[in-house]
Write a sequence for this structure.
């Protein structure tokens, strides 16, 4: 167990670098970010690790499809991860890649050490292998019947090879004893029970090398064998902080063992059985907790590339901004269960919880202060009973939030914070400060001060989930994030003695107008449409007369487009990475002109530009072979 109580080492799974991140990858990463930020609030030193899993058969297959080498494929995807994490305010300490030389060498050191110790030995394995899951489903045994993979349901292949085994069977009793001694090892408990029954049913030695795969970490002194991708990947949690690297012993001892590994329910066995056994064999301590979350589903189906129902976090960001998406995922996807994602629910959340409940309360305080020329506000000498009650409610809320956050039940913690948001709203309405402003200046100021204290507490407690918006909120009250110590502990015993300096700001949250693209599952079965359906979409050629970049966005360009007799329109497109504004002015493109206008980052788009992605993912504009009059409708 982690002895240094003032540090917090948290990890995400490392993502297969076969595609850009999707909403599921964002979800795992967000949970880790929230846990990291919460522990920063508790005054701890934090190391937050994320990264990519870059070896194995899956990568080879994707690379072949893309006409690239495995190295080229993984290199081409890293920026998409880093950009998406930056966009979503994921504040990681290190981004780990399993192709990093330091990782490769440390894994080889680890393999050699276990070989010398006798925990890894050479043998022969024949079994049914699931390539998409990178795992042997079962040993071949007597049966010749090809089983389906229990994880993904796809068919398996018979693979027979000389292999190195890890002596997993030798750790069965030790693992069971460890689980018994650490009843909080896996959160939530239901997942723990599944793991215990799996181990109790008997563990066989684990094949941890492949000769059929070439893209991976070669075994030391036997390079025909490549380390099984999980034996390679799991070790990232120790190699990233200096395991088996000269001069990094202190760093390693400082951070290891991990306080929390965040992972999805599909990869529990690897983290709860293999990983602890690897660590036991290596003489290393075991992590404190595994936090196992469910899946984000679309129409009750797991979101995945193969089902074609993947939601792109970048599109969501452009429509709703990072903090609103963070809030929705953390509040309405219960960590313990699968959760259904829908744009309509996200929009409802922004309107009700964020704009109405929180944004509006702040706005009313700021407007009342401004109207009554209060820029600076001191707390009253003595608080009245109603304000003291609000203060007690805040303390009770913070205590319960701390308890939930200790188990990483973020959705429950947010539920409790939002109950307090409602209590603060109720207090504000009952006191009717807009009337007091005219009758009793002291009472009026007290209500403003009490509500501002409540808002400050809400902002600090919600900061791990919505860092940027909550910092904006604090700033509008003339307050800032405290820099040191255990902020939550201090808040619980706070006497409400803050002074406030108000600055009016634009609304914190904009209510969506319902025009965002409904991100629903893509039906992959071909469906025919009629000629009338085709006629519904007005595709028109336009000439771009002006173009500028939208500063706050990594993707958007804003264009003024001339459609001849049909007039001019402003249209936004996510092509900043591929074109400079200068390259577009004077060019013709094809636009959907009868699409309902929508607001993106505060700018209205009155149509949609048609684009064609090439194999590299570069989006190019489409035009007629020769210039045609602006406003020509496509037929
Ligand atoms: N490379 C392995 C992990 C190695 S860790 C040493 C892997 N990668 S993955 O890219 O397939 O998945 C990474 C994480 O994303 C897993 O925790 C998985 O549960 C999560 N998600 C992938 N799709 C998901 C959803 N639809 N919903 C929520 N999370 C899901 O496994």
């Amino acid at each position: 167990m982690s002895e240094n109580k003032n540090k917090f080492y948290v990890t995400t799974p490392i993502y297969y670098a076969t595609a850009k991140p999707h909403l599921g990858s964002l979800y795992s990463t967000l949970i880790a970010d929230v846990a990291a930020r919460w522990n920063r609030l508790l005054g701890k030193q934090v190391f937050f690790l994320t990264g990519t899993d870059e070896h194995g058969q899956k990568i080879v297959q994707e690379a072949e499809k893309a006409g690239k080498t495995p190295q080229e494929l993984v290199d081409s995807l890293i920026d998409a991860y880093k950009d998406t994490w930056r966009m979503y305010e994921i504040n990681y300490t290190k981004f780990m890649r399993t192709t990093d030389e330091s990782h490769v060498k440390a894994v080889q050191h680890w393999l050699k050490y276990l070989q010398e110790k006798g925990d890894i030995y050479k043998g022969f394995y024949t079994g049914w292998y699931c390539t998409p899951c990178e795992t042997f489903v079962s040993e071949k045994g007597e049966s010749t019947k090809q089983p389906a993979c229990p994880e993904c349901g796809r068919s398996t292949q018979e693979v027979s090879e000389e292999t190195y085994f890890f002596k997993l069977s030798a750790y069965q009793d030790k693992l069971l004893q460890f689980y018994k001694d650490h009843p909080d090892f896996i959160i939530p408990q239901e997942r723990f029970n599944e793991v215990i029954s799996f181990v109790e049913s008997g563990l066989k030695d684990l094949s941890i090398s492949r000769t059929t795969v070439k893209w991976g970490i070669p075994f030391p002194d036997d390079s025909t064998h490549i380390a099984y991708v999980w034996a390679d990947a799991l070790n990232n949690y120790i190699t990233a902080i200096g395991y088996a690297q000269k001069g990094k012993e202190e760093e390693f001892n400082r951070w290891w063992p991990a306080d929390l590994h965040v992972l999805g329910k599909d990869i529990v066995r690897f983290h709860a059985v293999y990983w602890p056994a690897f660590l036991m064999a290596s003489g290393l301590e075991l992590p404190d907790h595994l936090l196992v979350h469910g899946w984000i589903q679309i129409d009750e189906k797991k979101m995945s590339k193969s089902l074609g129902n993947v939601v792109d976090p970048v599109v969501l960001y452009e429509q709703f901004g990072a903090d609103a998406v963070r809030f929705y995922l953390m509040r309405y996807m219960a960590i313990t269960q699968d959760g259904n994602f829908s744009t309509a629910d996200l929009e409802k959340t922004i309107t009700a919880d964020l704009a109405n409940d929180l944004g509006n309360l702040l706005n009313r305080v700021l407007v009342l202060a401004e109207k009554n020329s209060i820029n600076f506000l001191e707390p009253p000498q003595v608080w009245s009973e109603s304000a003291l009650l609000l203060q007690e409610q805040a303390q009770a809320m913070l205590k319960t939030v701390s308890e939930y956050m200790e188990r990483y039940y973020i959705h429950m913690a947010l539920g409790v914070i939002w109950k307090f948001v409602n209590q603060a709203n109720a207090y504000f309405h009952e006191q009717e400060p807009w009337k007091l402003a005219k009758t009793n200046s002291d009472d009026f100021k007290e209500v403003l001060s009490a509500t501002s204290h409540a808002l400050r507490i809400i902002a600090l407690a919600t900061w791990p989930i919505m860092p940027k918006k909550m910092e904006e909120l604090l700033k509008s009250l003339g307050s800032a994030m405290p820099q040191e110590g255990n902020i939550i502990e201090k808040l619980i015993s706070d006497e409400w003695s803050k002074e406030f300096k108000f600055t009016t700001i634009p609304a914190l949250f904009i209510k969506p107008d319902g025009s965002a693209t409904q991100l629903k599952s893509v039906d992959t079965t071909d469906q025919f449409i009629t000629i009338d359906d085709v006629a519904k979409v007005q595709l028109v050629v336009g000439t771009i007369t002006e173009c500028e970049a939208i500063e706050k966005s990594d993707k958007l360009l804003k264009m003024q487009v001339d459609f001849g007799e049909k007039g001019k329109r402003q249209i936004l497109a996510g092509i900043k990475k591929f074109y400079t504004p200068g390259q577009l002015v004077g060019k013709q493109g094809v636009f959907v002109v009868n699409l309902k206008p929508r607001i993106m980052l505060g700018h209205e788009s009155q149509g949609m530009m048609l684009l064609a992605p090439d194999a590299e993912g570069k989006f190019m504009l489409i035009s007629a072979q020769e210039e045609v009059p602006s406003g020509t409708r496509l037929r």
Notes: Residues 13-16, 24-25, 27-28, 53, 233-234, 236, 263-264, 266-267, 295-296, 302-303 surround 5'-O-[(L-methionyl)-sulphamoyl]adenosine (CB under 6 Å). The longest strand covers residues 120-130. The two ends are 69 Å apart (CA to CA).
